[in-house]
Amino acid sequence: MLIETETTPNPATLKFLPGRMVMEAGTRDFATPEEAEQSPLAEALFGLGDVTGVFFGRDFVSVTAGPGAEWRDLKPDVLSILLDHFTAQMPLFRAASAGFSVPPADDVLTDDPADAEIVAQIRELIETRVRPAVANDGGDIVYRGFDKGKVYLQLQGACAGCPSSSATLKNGIEQLLRHYVPEVIEVRAV
């Protein structure tokens, strides 16, 4: 089995492509070792000590190294864990935690029903134009709300903490949404 690696715009994160589906539907972001306990793979990656984030996409796993960690030292260990996991066809999640994608966030806004058409346009643009591009960079973006012209989005995986994430939000996503949905005046990360 060959696992390809790709760099991401976030220098702390590498994208690993095992050549097979990782998640059939949705995505899953692990930001702490405690969250990773739901997945034997994520738990093993956090167990390396230098890993501060794991993200499962459709056909990739993004791994974020902690401050001071060097990818030249960490990459062989990550590849070994991924190779063992996928070769043995081990489950991605423990049985009690399977069947979920992105967990609900406490900071999700309740959209005004009067904005339903605007929200539908925003969600469609995010699903069809933004998420595929962000996935190419080893991450994901999740809609969290619309209020008074402001769109709230959550960046995950390689995109969370990426030095270019604010430029992506302002110069890419905000311009796209403002072009197609004139009611949008700003995009903010939550």
UniProtKB/TrEMBL annotation:
Protein name: NifU family protein
Organism the protein comes from: Sphingomonas mollis
InterPro entries: FSCA_dom_sf (IPR034904), Nfu/NifU_N (IPR014824), Nfu/NifU_N_sf (IPR036498), NFU1-like (IPR035433), NIF_FeS_clus_asmbl_NifU_C (IPR001075)
Family recorded in the similarity comment: Belongs to the NifU family.
Highest taxon, organism lineage: Bacteria
Domain Scaffold protein Nfu/NifU N-terminal positions: 3-89
Entry-linked SMART domains: Nfu_N (SM00932)
